[in-house]
Amino acid sequence: MSGKPRLTYCNGRGRMEPIRWLLAAAGVEFEEIFLETREQYEKLIKDGVLMFQQVPLVEIDGMKMVQTRAILSYIAGKYNLYGKDLKERALIDMYVEGITDLMQMILMFPFSPPEAKEKNLDSIKERATNRYFPVFEKVLKQHGQDFLVGNKFSWADVQLIEAILAVEEKIPAVLSGFPQLQAFKIRMSNMPTIKKFLQPGSPRKPPPDECYRETVLKIFRK
Amino acid sequence: MAGKPKLYYFDGRGKMESIRWLLAAAGVEFEEEFLETREQYEKLLQGGSLLFQQVPMVEIDGMKMVQTRAILSYIAAKYNLYGKDLMERALIDMYVGGTDDLMGFILMFPFLSAEDKEKQCAVIVQKATSRYFPAYEKVLKDHGQDFLVGNSFSWADVHLLEAILMVEEKKSDVLLGFPQLQAFKARISSIPTIKKFLEPGSQRKPVPDDKYVETVRRVLHMYYDMKAN
C-alpha cells in the first residue's frame, strides 16, 4: 500500500474536484480510481465500502471516508489549512459553505434540461456577481491581506480560486468590477502547489462534457 | 448584552432546527427573533447582518454567523461535542453528513403540493430504511457502545436522534427492524438536556404547517413552486 490518499469517483469534476484541489494545494500526492461502469459501482456497494452508497470515496489514513464536506474538513485540519483557532475556523467554514452553494449551481448545470440552461446560466451569473463575489471582494478590501482568513493560506482561499475559475469558464468577464478578486486570482494561481495543479498533466479535470454527463447518468441511474 | 446566542429565523423548524437541538443538547440557553414580515428581513439585509443575504443567522461570541453547517460546527467544537481528535471529528462529520442528507428530503416537504407530498413521503421512508438507518444501525452494532463516536456523547448523536424523530413523524413504525436504533433513541432521549428539549414548552418547534409555509414565502419571496425528489 502506497500510503497516498486514494480517490474513487467518475473521471470528471463533480463533487470530487474540490477534494483534488485541496489535496493539490496542500502538496499531497494522491491516486485515483475512475468509475466507468454500473458494475464497478454496484461492486463497491456490495463490498460495503460506501457508507451511504455514494461517492466521493476517499481512502485516507486507514479510513474509507465519504461525504465531501467531511473529507474536505479532514484534509484541511490535517494539513493546517483550517485557521489557528475556533473563530478562524468559523470564518473559513462560513466562506467555504457560501462558495459551495455557488459551486452547487455549476455542479448541477450539465444535468439541467436544454431549455433550462440559459436561465440557469443567468442564475449563476446573478448569484456570483450579486451575492458571493461582492462578499469576498469586501473581505479582501477591508483587511488588505493576501488571504481570506487570518493572513494565512487556508481552505477558504483554495475553494474561492476554484470557484472563480469555474465561473469564469462559463462567464469570462465575470470578474470585471472585482479588482480585489482579480488580484487574488493572480496571487493564488502563482502559489507553487496551485500553479502546478493548473498546468496540463495535473490531476485537475476538464469542464464536464457530454461523455462525462452520460457516464454519470449510466452509473447512477435512479 | 445578554451573552446568550441569538437566533434569527422563522418561527418554525427549517434549517434552524438542528441548531436549536444542538444548543439545547449542550445545555446552552438561547434567544430567538422570529421573522414574520418582509420588512424585518429587508432590515436585516440592509443592516449588513446576513453575509450571503440568507438566514439562519446566529449571533454568538461577537460574530454574526450564517451557513447552518458552519454554525453547527462552531457550537459542536465550543461545547466539546466534536470528538477528541481529527479522526473522531472525521467520523462525526461523515455521520452528520448522512443525517443532513436525510433531513434534506424532509426540509422541503411542507412546500410541496398534496400529490407531491405523498410521493416525497415514500422517498423519505425508502431512503431512511434502505440507505441511512442501516448505516447507523451497523455502526452501533459493530462497536456496541452507547454513542456513535468515541464512546462519548457528540453532535452526531444529537443529529441522528433529530432525524429519527422527524422520519417517525412521517411513519411512526419506521424503526421496526432497527433494534439498535430503537435502543439508541430511548437512550439519547433520556439524556437530561435532551429530555428537557423534548418536553412541551421548550424551544423545539412543531411540525411545519401551512402558516409556516406562508410566512417563509411571504418573507423570502421564494419557494412557490417546489417539486418532489
Automatic annotation (TrEMBL), chain A:
Residues 3-83 form the GST N-terminal domain. It holds the Pfam family GST_C_3. SUPFAM superfamilies: GST C-terminal domain-like, Thioredoxin-like. The keyword Transferase applies. Keywords: Transferase. It is an enzyme of class 2 (transferase). One of its GO terms (molecular function) is glutathione transferase activity. Gene3D superfamilies: 1.20.1050.10, Glutaredoxin (3.40.30.10). Residues 85-209 form the GST C-terminal domain. Transmembrane segments: none annotated. Its EC number is 2.5.1.18. One of its GO terms (biological process) is glutathione metabolic process. The keyword Transferase applies. InterPro entries: Glutathione-S-Trfase_C-like, Glutathione-S-Trfase_C_sf, Glutathione_S-Trfase, Glutathione_S-Trfase_N, GST_alpha, GST_C, GST_superfamily, Thioredoxin-like_sf. Belongs to the GST superfamily. Alpha family. This is glutathione transferase. It comes from Spizaetus tyrannus. The gene is Gsta3_1.
UniProtKB/TrEMBL annotation, chain B:
It comes from the Eukaryota. Keywords: Transferase. GO terms for biological process: glutathione metabolic process; xenobiotic metabolic process. GO terms for molecular function: glutathione transferase activity. PROSITE patterns: GST_CTER (PS50405), GST_NTER (PS50404). Residues 3-83 form the GST N-terminal domain. It holds the Pfam family GST_C_3. It is an enzyme of class 2 (transferase). Its EC number is 2.5.1.18. Residues 85-209 form the GST C-terminal domain. Belongs to the GST superfamily. Alpha family. This is glutathione transferase. It comes from Spizaetus tyrannus (black hawk-eagle). The gene is Gsta3_0.
